[in-house]
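Marked as duplicate of an earlier ticket. Keeping the data here for the record.
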Amino acid sequence: MSSFSELLKEYRQQRGLSQGQLARAARLSRVYIYHLETGQRVHPSVHTVRALVRALELHGEERRRLYQAFTALTGTLLDEDQNDITLLNLNELASLLVTNTMYPAHGLDRLWYITAWNEAARQLFELTDQQLSSHTAHLLIFLFDPTIRTRFRAWEPVARRLVSDFKYNTQRVTYLPRYRELWRELRQLPDFRRIANSSEPTSAPAPSFAFQLRHSRLGWLTLRTAVTTFSGTPDYAIVSYVPGDQPTLRLYQQHGWQRP
């Protein structure tokens, strides 16, 4: 059986990652990764090994082998099934919170794929069954949809803001194959390519911003975003769209998206 340090180095190299890239993805220091791979750290914590598993996206036999090597190194037994249940419950919890939120809301994973919509969000953005049929829909793909983008007043500033935020929020996971596939898909959109080439993240994005959206029955709405994240994990977030001015608040109340 390979040692923990050997397996960690093997899996890192298989994914084409440097020690620094793995450290950023796992929120550890590069020196710490170096010490793990050279056997200078012999008592990594459970939290550390699970962070490495998430960063390397280990599943099945690969994860089982790393857990076994961790147990052989530290004497600590890791419950693989419990780890799976924890991750699954977070996803289910995000979907439940989205579904039971009165405000229009949807869930996002760490790559901004939309994991759940509630009925209020569907009505607000006037989305069709066809648009909602796929669970692999991406927030930026919706934003750059030719039909949806015409509903925004000053669409380009909103698009630039979200592209910049996306680049900032995903800068630790650019090594993931799913990220690379998504980036190739997004860059096939001419306007995305143009905006992405000139929208660089300079600092952590503000937690909320306002924009205006035209609804076919309700007219112009001023909306503000509100983002909720789970403590201790960046994998799931909930984005709610709340009223940004008094007229929109009254329309929300009339439409049942806000208690009077």
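See parent ticket for discussion. The chain has a mean pLDDT of 87.
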